[in-house]
Each structure stands twice: as C-alpha cells, then as structure tokens.
Write a structure and sequence with these properties.
- The chain is mainly beta.
- The chain is globular and about 55 Å long.
- It contains no helices and twelve strands.
- Strands 5-7-9-11-12-10 form a six-stranded mixed β-sheet, with no helix packed on it. A four-stranded antiparallel β-sheet has the order 1-2-3-4, with no helix packed on it.
C-alpha cells in the first residue's frame, strides 16, 4: 500500500499477487494457483480486495468479471450488468426489473450494516429456496436467475 493503514492480511492490500496451493503438497504433488487482486476506488481499508484474475494449476486463466465501482445511491442494475461484481456501499440496490434466465450478479455488502438487495418489480426467490434475507455487512452473495423472474442466491 502507498500510504495510510498497513493491511493486516495480503488480500486487503490495494493490489496483490497471491499464490494458493491447488492440492495438498507432498513429495509428488505441488500444484498451485496464482491470483491477482485489486481494490476499486474508494474501497475502505481492512476490507478484502477483489480477485480479478486466476492462473490455475492446469494452466487455465480465469478472468473475473468487471466490478461496478462503489454503488453509493439508489441504483437499479441493468440487464447488461449481468456477470459483474457490485460493490455496494450505500443507498438501495435493486436487481433488474425482469430477471432473464442465466443472469448473475455478485453483490458485496459494505454498507456498514445488514442490507437486502431488492429483487426487482417482477421477480421472486425460487419456490422451496432459502427465503430472501438481509446480508451481513462485509459479506458477498451471488444472485443467479434460474428462470425468468426467478432468483436463487448463494452466500
């Protein structure tokens, strides 16, 4: 980090390259992944940076989707935002009005309190799925549209 608070863990740095074991290491195994992290503008200190790219042990490269810089006001996501990571710091956050099968959003709650994204006017959580509950502060949740107007979430 250039100035200010020194990160307490590597992944809280403004930018980091981190190596992770991809398997249990032994005399015949040492596979590893190389991961690149950066922080968006105005991200608070002592919060985890965002994984942007991973070079996997098998040689594959996984680029992480674009992040929408801090959502600080009342915001409704658009269909074309699907696949993005949303860094939510204030205001209300609403998923697209009509979910299209296959849409996906990763929402990071950093609002300094628990918060619940709105599902959009025509949407609901899938029947027999976990009820839509508030996200704790500094947590992430992935919303996936499994059918038109129908969401599930993980996290």
């Amino acid at each position: 980090t250039r100035d200010g608070n020194i990160p307490s863990v590597t992944t809280e740095a403004a930018a980091a390259i981190v190596a992770y074991a991809a398997e249990d290491h032994s005399t015949g195994d040492k596979g590893g992944d190389l991961v690149f992290f950066t922080s968006p503008i105005d991200q608070d200190d002592d919060t985890t940076s965002i994984e942007r790219m991973r070079i996997e042990a098998n040689g594959g490269v996984q680029a992480r989707k674009t992040v929408i810089k801090a959502v600080t006001g009342n915001t409704t996501l658009a269909d074309e935002d699907s696949g993005k990571t949303i860094y939510w710091t204030a205001g209300t956050l609403t998923l697209p009005a009509t979910a299209e099968s296959g849409q996906q959003f990763v929402v990071i709650n950093n609002t300094n309190g628990s918060a619940t994204p709105n599902l959009g006017t025509s949407n609901a959580i899938a029947t027999n799925w976990t009820a839509h509950a508030a996200m704790a502060d500094e947590t992430a949740r992935t919303y996936i549209a499994v059918a038109a107007n129908t969401w599930i979430y993980i996290g």
